[in-house]
Structure formats: C-alpha cells, structure tokens
Amino acid sequence: MKKYLSHYRALVSLGTPLVIGQIGVVLQNFADTLMIGHHTTVELAAASLVSNIFILGLLMAMGFALCLTPLIGKAHGQGDVESIGMTVRNGIVVNTMAAIVLMTAYTVLYFFLDKLGQPAELLPYVRPYYIINLVSIPFVCWVNALKQLFDATTDTKTPMWVLLGGNALNIVGNWILIYGHCGMPEMGITGAGLSTLTARVVMFVAIVLCFAFSNRHSAERKAFGKSRVSKDGIRSLITLGAPISLQMGMESGAWSLCSIIVGWIGTNALAGHQIMLTISQLFFQFYYALASAVAIRVSLFHGQHDYIAIRRTAWAGCHLNFMIAILVSIPVIIFREQMGFLFTSSPQVAAEVAGAIVPLIVYQFSDGLQCTFSNAMRGLAYVRPTMLVAFISYFVVSLPVAYVLGITLHGGLVGVWFSFPFGLTIAGALYYHYYHRRLLQLEKAKE
Questions:
Q1: 363 close to 425: Cβ distance less than 8 angstroms
Q2: pLDDT tens, 140-171?
Q3: What is the pLDDT of residues 23-44, one digit of tens each?
Q4: What are the residues whose beta carbons fall under 8 Å from the beta carbon of 391, sequence distance 6 or more?
Q5: Burial, 226: exposed, middle or buried (Cβ in 10 Å; 0-12, 13-18, 19+)?
Q6: Coil, helix or strand for 52?
Q7: What stretches of 38-114 show up as alpha helix (H) in DSSP?
Q8: What Cα–Cα distance (Å) separates residue 64 from each residue in 263, 300, 393, 412, 424?
Q9: pTM of the prediction?
Q10: Smallest Cα–Cα separation from 402: which of 354, 374, 349, 363?
Q11: 4-26 b/e (C-beta count within 10 Å ≥ 16 → b)
C-alpha cells in the first residue's frame, strides 16, 4: 500500500473541502426536507416531486460545467494560464446557453404538471414551488461554471466556503419563511422555495467577488479579461460537455422516473421516497466529492503525461470511497427504524423509510465504484462512452426492474429501491472497463 500513501494524502487534502461543500448542499436538502416534512406530509410529497423533476435538468446542465475541469486541470498542469482564461469565458457562455434551454423546457413542462398522474392534492403546492425553482436555474449554472475554475486549479476551499455560506443562509431563510418567524407570514413550501432562490443568488454574487478579488487567481483573472469568446472553443466545450450532460441526465432521469413510479404507489410512499433520496444523496456526495478530487488529480497528471500516477490516483480514490461506504452504512443500518422520524411524525412514512434502507446499504460499494471511475474518465477527457454506460445501466436495467419489483410484484417503495443495486453495479463495472482501456491506449501512445 506504500505506493498509494502519497495519493491518499493528496486526495484527502484536495477532497476534504469538496466533501464539506457537498455535505453543505446535502444539509440544505436535509433542512428543506425536514422543515417541510414537519410542516405537512402533503407539502413534503410535493417538494419530492418538484425536486426530482428539477434535479434531472440541473444535473444535465452541470455536465457543461464539469467539462471545464479536465481542460482547466490539464492547462494548470502545463502552466498554460491563457488557456484557462479562455476556457472559463467560453464556459460561462455555454452554461448560460444551457440555462436558457432548461428554462424553456421547464416552462413548457409547467403546463403539463397535471398530466403526470400524481395525486391531485399536491398540485396547489407544486405550482408555486416549481416556478420559484425555475427562476433560480441561471444562478445555479453560473455558480457551477465558476466553481470549476477554483476546483481544477486545486483551490477547493474557496467554493467550499461559498457553498457553506449559501446553505446556512438557506436554512435560516427556511426557518423564517416556512414557519412564519421574525414577523414574516407562514408560507410553507413556497417559503422554502423563496429561501433557496435567495441563497442561490447570494452564492453567485459571492463566487464572482471571490474571482474578482482573489490574489491567488490574479493571473487567471487577467487571462480571462484578455480572452474573447471563441466559436471553436464553445463548440469543443459542447462536444465534451454533451456526453457528460447526457450521462448525468440519464442517471438522474432514472431516479426521477422512479419518483413517478413511486407516486403511483401513493402519497406516503412518495414522501418516504423523498426522505430516502435525501439520505442517499448524503452518501453520494461523499463519493462524488472524493471522485471529483480524483478527476482533478487525473487531469493534472494527464497534462504531465504521468500515467502511473493516474492509475494510482484512481485506485486510491476507489479505496477511500469503499472506506467511506463502510463508515456511512453502519449507523444508518443500526438506526434504520428511527431514521424516518427525523423528517416526519408520520409512522406510515417512517415505516416506508425503514424498509428502503436495506437496498440503500446494498448498493453503496457499487455507487462508490461507478462514481470513482466515471470521474477518472472525465479527468482524461474521455467521456463519450459514459452515455452508453448510463443508458444500459439505468434505462435498460434499473427502470424496468423498478417497475417489475415495485408495481408488478407489489413490492412498493422497497421493491423500487431494490432495482438500484442492479444498475449501479453494471455501471461501475463498465466505467472501469472503459477507463482501463483508455489508459492502456494512452500508455501505448506514449511509448
């Protein structure tokens, strides 16, 4: 294990701020779910529906931000500041375009919300919450794009503080607006939406100010100021970002479609599903943050053509994610009967959560595996196969299994969640296969 020690240290050092920042995002979701759930169960179910609809689009848009990491990381490894400035400028344009496309699509979808087959009692709560989330899309896209500049140049602490500050603001805003404190009216789920919108605007302003006044990034800032938008640069970012976007969209789409399947089971199952998604997102953010550190390190070593370091970095990230899987699973499986009551006072919803905890634990190693090697592929800027892997794993495998286990065999929420281990295991194996094949090609080309 000695050959991995330096990579463990580097990944932990680089990844810890990413983990903290991502946990902050999950804590925001925890806070939203907990505060809305203790207001009313119907509002919790409505929040689940809207959140899962928007997660799909926002993750697809994030693909056009994440494609900046391998380009900026590789340029950083080569000391090419001018390329970094140009990539960031073109990246902001591309992410603005993604935001416009998303807002257009979600505006059209708004007029068909009553056609999704969800409980009619949810619609009065869904509509205002949906509109507020729609307005916040551009700010999410811009923050994601600028965050990649800091992360890919190994400055992961700055976006960490921005995310934590915004999430803290969101939690305070929830307390004030959901329940009607500090002289404000009690707004319930609409108040939660307004609080989230405000936090996202503030985070955008904060990360722009960090870029504008940071001494550490003065060279990148000057290069950004001198650069111009390039059609070729935009085209290359779209070419690189589209596969990542489709990969993340298919992953999220499978979860969102599963939410619709769960909605056919009933309101209690949908509320329990939202709680389970919140818990699983906490686990996933650990894996994803560490895997993002893998992508950053891989992109740096790719710029230096150090393929031995790339291989060791990827495996070191995999080892650390497996360790995290063990650590996070133990307390959740022990306290599975009590987990649901953190978010709701409904015994029926808590029972749904207790049952779904078991399949959640089953797929943790697979989730860590697929997350690590999909990000290693991203660090190599080798992303085209990820679309195929996501399609096979989630649409060909997970969704049909979810319908059969949850609806056809009357397995309910637990049946739907038992479909996830199948898809994630296949995804992990295929991502490793393509990553390994690409690395062999690079090593042969170097020889």
A1: yes
A2: 999 999 998 998 888 889 988 998 898 889 88
A3: 776 666 667 777 776 667 777 7
A4: 250
A5: exposed
A6: helix
A7: 41-66, 68-78, 81-110
A8: 31, 20, 22, 36, 23
A9: 0.76
A10: 363
A11: beebbebbeebbbbbbbbbbbbb
